[in-house]
Amino acid sequence: MFLDQLLSRNPRLVRSATELALQGAIPPNSYVLDLDAIAANGRAIRAAADRHGLSLYWMLKQVGRNPLVAGALVADGSAETVSVDVECAHAISGNGFRLGHVGNLVQIARAELPRVLAARPEVVSVFSVAKAEQVGRVTREMGFTQQVLLRVADPHADTYLPGMEAGFLLDELPDAVARIRRAGVDIVGVTSFPTLSYVAPGGPQPTGNFTTIQRAAEILRSLGVDVRQVNAPGNTCAFTTQQQAEAGATHIEPGHGFLGTTPYHLQFEDQPEIPAACYVTEVAHHFGGRAYVYGGGFFVDDPAWLRPDFRRQALVGESVDQLLEQRHTFLGAGSGGSGQFGGIDYYGFLDADERAAPVGATVVFGFRIQSFVTRANIAVIDHRDDRPRLRGIFDQLGRRLPWYG
Q: Which CATH architecture describes the domain 3-33+272-399?
């Protein structure tokens, strides 16, 4: 989906990733991250957020909670991270970074609360009175009061991604606030997800969730709550910051923004962020007239943006120049077909024969990555004197893989 943007806006990444793969430095089934581009993209988002008075929590799940990426984005000593689940929290704190927002989409399980709360996250989202009470019991024993955000919901107005429905209904808030106050936690704000649309053409459009958090914040204020956070995550990049601030947000959570892979980067070529990731693999064998390439990282979340006639493609070659000139149609992975993804993706399939895609040829894809739900390696590169330099290869939990040196 982002292959053309990669080639037009960050061709150096494609060249560098291919060169390192051909040398054997980067194994197949690797997401290659351009640390120079990520750092520049992060600076652009931070500058826009500063102009509009917004605070940042960087979302790192899609890049395997990578410590080099975190170091390029997070201000020294700050708690500018968001943990979508407990795995994020452990990986981030284990690599020496402070926890900002925890429980963004997945509640912290009861058994995990002592370990996560001991790291003193800035805020914890709660979806129910029962969860707030669990948080309060743990932190009372630890001797501090935890700040919490209330995940709020209006099923008649909100957008929910499948399986992510949750939150306090607006008419439940007065009773819930009274009970949560007795739980010994400090209510500091509200959140929901997603607050900006994934598919609306013509630029950022707020979802009903944004209206819901606005209304919830007003209800909390009427109840005497000091609302210090209106947390508005989803599709955040420099382009969205003005609209988010004008709608009342105080905190935003850039993720694919710093990779240059939000929907707006497909619609508008003049965004300050450039594509900063690609997927690199290798032709394994041929069968039935198609090339099988090593898989493990074939998960994407952009089907809603596709034109009906769109066909994914990959670059294939045994040299950098050949790869840049040769494209083949992607037929799918696992049990998926017609360019889709399904089942266990040991392999992906290209519409190419042995002559066009020889065994061992390097293959580069440009889709929107989600490392945390894949088996892909994370290869982080930068450039010194305009030459590619491999900074390390990591797993999905931000751990360096020692067998790659």
A: Beta Barrel (2.40)
